[in-house]
Design brief:
By secondary structure, this protein is α/β, with parallel strands linked by helices. Helix content is 25%, strand content 27%. It has two domains: 304 residues, Glycosidases (TIM Barrel), CATH 3.20.20.80; 94 residues, Immunoglobulin-like. The N terminus is likely disordered.
C-alpha cells in the first residue's frame, strides 16, 4: 500500500460513459498464451471484492455490494487469523451462491521459524483437512505483503531473511498436499512496492517457487494526496513491476486495490485500470477490489458508475476453468510393508503426472515416477522402502501422493497411507 499520475480534476457521469465506450472499443490484447493454473478463465478476468461497509464482512454487505454494481461477484474475499477455523458457513454461503472464496490467512501470534520448524503442524493439518472436506475450490492467500514492514511475518520483522518466509510457505503447502487438500489454489501475494526498497527485500526473494504457487497476487493502492508522501499514480505504475516479472509464467490476481478521490479522478482511475487489464496486461485473470474506507466504490457517483461499467463488461464476466483430471489410485498392495510394495494408479485424461512418497512430516522421501500421460491408461510402480539416496527408511507411516496437472493447469491430488515396519 503506497503512493502515487493520470487524469486530474473532476469527471461527470456523462464523461464516465464516454470513457467507458473508448475503453470497451479498445484494440484487443496482444496475442499471448495466458499462463495456466486452476480457476483461470480462458480470457478476461474474474471480479471479486473484500466488502466491509464499516462493520466488517457480512452476507448482507455482500448482497448490497452486488446490488450496487449490478451483478454477482466471482470472488468473495475473507480474512482469517492464524488460529481461526475455516472454511465455515461463510464459505458455504459463497459456494452455494456461485462465488469462489478467497481466504487470506494471516499468521498473527506465531513466527515464521515456528511454522517452518513444525510447531504448528497439527493446526495446519486441521485446516488442510477442513479445506479438503469443503470439496470446492478456494483461493488460499497465505501471509500476504511479506515485502512490507508492517506485519510480523514480513522480512523486516524476521531478521531481513526472506528464506524464513519461503520455508514457512513451503511447509504449509506440503502439509496441505499431504492431507489431500487439492482444492486449495495457492496465491502468493507481495505488496506492489518493496518497503524498505532495499536489495534484500526485493519481492522476488520471497517467491516460494513455481511448484508452490498457482497464482501471483499483488496488493497496491492509489493513495493520491491523502498521505503526505502520496501522489497520484496510475494502475500500471502501481502494478507494472511485479506484473512484468511473473506475467509470462503465472496468472496474475490483483488481490487488493482501490483509489482515493483526492488528487485526481477516481472514476478515471478505475476506467484506466479496466483498460490496462484488458489491453496492456492480459495475464491479469482476477481483479479483487478492497471495498472499505476511502477505497469504497461509492465515494462518488462517478466512481460508482465507472465500477458498474467495468463490472458489466464482457472482459469481467468470465467463468473459471475448474475441471481437474480424474484419478484412480494410488493403491498399494500390501499397505503393511517390510521391504517393497507395488503401487497402481490411473489418470483418465492426458496430464502431467507424479507419484511421490512423503514421510509423516510431509517431506518428500522418494519420487517414484514423473511423466506425461498421453492417453487414459493405468500404470504401476514399485517402492523398495528406500529413500532417494538408496537408504532404507525408518519404520513408520508414509503417504503415497499422486498429482496430475492438465494442459489448462488444473491440478488434482490423490493419496494413500502405508506403514513400513522393520
Amino acid at each position: 500500500m503506497r503512493r502515487g499520475v493520470f487524469f486530474r480534476g473532476g469527471i461527470t457521469f456523462t464523461q464516465v460513459i464516454v470513457l467507458a465506450i473508448l475503453v470497451s472499443g479498445s484494440a484487443p490484447a496482444p496475442a499471448l498464451a495466458r499462463p495456466s493454473a486452476p480457476l483461470v478463465p480462458s480470457s478476461g478476468a474474474l471480479l471479486g471484492a473484500w466488502v466491509d461497509p464499516g462493520s466488517g464482512w457480512s452476507r448482507s454487505g455482500v448482497a448490497d455490494f452486488e446490488s450496487r454494481i449490478g451483478r454477482k461477484i466471482d470472488i468473495d474475499h475473507h480474512y482469517y487469523a492464524w488460529g481461526d477455523s475455516f472454511p465455515g458457513q461463510n464459505e458455504v454461503f459463497d459456494r452455494d451462491s456461485g462465488r469462489i472464496p478467497l481466504l487470506t490467512w494471516e499468521p498473527w501470534g506465531t513466527t515464521l521459524s515456528e511454522i517452518a520448524g513444525g510447531s504448528y503442524d497439527s493446526l495446519i493439518r486441521t485446516r488442510a483437512r477442513a479445506v479438503a472436506a469443503f470439496a470446492s475450490p478456494v483461493f488460499l492467500r497465505l501471509a500476504h505483503e511479506m515485502n512490507g514492514n508492517w506485519y510480523p511475518w514480513d522480512g523486516s520483522h524476521n531478521g531481513g531473511d526472506p528464506s524464513r518466509y519461503v520455508a514457512a510457505w513451503r511447509r504449509v503447502h506440503d502439509l496441505f498436499a499431504s492431507e489431500g487438500a487439492t482444492n486449495a489454489v495457492w496465491v502468493w501475494s507481495p505488496n506492489a512496492e518493496d518497503v524498505p526498497a532495499q536489495a534484500w527485500n526485493r519481492f522476488s526473494n520471497y517467491y516460494p517457487g513455481d511448484s508452490y504457487v498457482d497464482w501471483v497476487g499483488v496488493d497496491g493502492y492509489n493513495f493520491g494526496t491523502t498521505e503526505a508522501w502520496g501522489s497520484w499514480r496510475s494502475f500500471e505504475a502501481i502494478f507494472g513491476r511485479i506484473y512484468s516479472a511473473y506475467a509470462g509464467s503465472k496468472p496474475i490476481m490483483i488481490a487488493e486495490t482501490g483509489s482515493a478521490e483526492q488528487g485526481g479522478s477516481k472514476a478515471s482511475w478505475l476506467l484506466d485500470a479496466w483498460y490496462r487489464a484488458q489491453v496492456r496486461m492480459p495475464s491479469i485473470a482476477a481483479f479483487v477490489a478492497f471495498d472499505a474506507g476511502k477505497w469504497r466504490i461509492e465515494t462518488s457517483s462517478a466512481a460508482t458508475a465507472a465500477f458498474r461499467l467495468m463490472a458489466a463488461s464482457p472482459h469481467m464476466n468470465q467463468s473459471p476453468d475448474s475441471g481437474a483430471p480424474r484419478l484412480s489410485g494410488p493403491a498399494s498392495n500390501p499397505t503393511q510393508v517390510r521391504s517393497s510394495t507395488k503401487v497402481w494408479f490411473r489418470a483418465w485424461e492426458p496430464a502431467k503426472m507424479s507419484v511421490r512418497v512423503l514421510d509423516s512430516q510431509a517431506r518428500v522421501v522418494r519420487v517414484l515416477r514423473n511423466w506425461t500421460w498421453s492417453a487414459p491408461v493405468g500404470a504401476a510402480a514399485y517402492w523398495d522402502t528406500r529413500d532417494s539416496r538408496g537408504r532404507k527408511v525408518a519404520a513408520g507411516s508414509y503417504r503415497l501422493l499422486m498429482s496430475a496437472v492438465d494442459s489448462a493447469g488444473n491440478r488434482r491430488y490423490a493419496s494413500q497411507w502405508i506403514r513400513v515396519s522393520r
